[in-house]
Design brief:
124 residues, Rossmann fold, 5 helices, 21% strand, globular
């Protein structure tokens, strides 16, 4: 059901982090959907057509990089990859797979919100 609000798909296998991300996004007025693994992420993206995807680098079933590749090939949705802050290799792989940016954990809430706003074409 379309609400007129931007939709963000959160793909995070850690329930605590997933809840935190959803709360941050909902406070901005954005609709959220959540997936716990890579396969579920692709299914939800195909059904819900999110405006932005926040994708964890490390996921069960399909890696974040593989999910990002598939989303980039099948959908024109901006992907924000989340992963270890000091893991340069992950950052490079994420960008090569089609992610618009890589945000290191732990992240500043304002940094993540700014990246989502930018991906949505909103003023940061």
């Amino acid at each position: 059901m379309a609400t007129g609000r931007p939709s963000v798909l959160v793909v995070e296998n850690d329930p605590v982090m997933s809840d935190l991300l959803q709360n941050i996004l909902r406070r901005q007025g954005w609709q959220t959907h959540t997936a716990l693994d890579g396969e579920q992420a692709l299914s939800l993206a195909a059904v819900n057509h999110p405006d932005v995807v926040i994708l964890d680098y490390v996921l069960p079933k399909l890696s974040g990089v593989e999910v990002c590749r598939r989303l980039s090939a099948d959908h024109s949705v901006p992907v924000i990859m989340l992963g270890e802050r000091d893991y340069t290799h992950a950052k490079l792989l994420s960008i090569k797979a089609g992610a618009r940016c890589y945000v290191g954990k732990p992240f500043e809430v304002t940094e993540l919100v700014t990246e989502v706003k930018t991906a949505l074409g909103q003023k940061a």
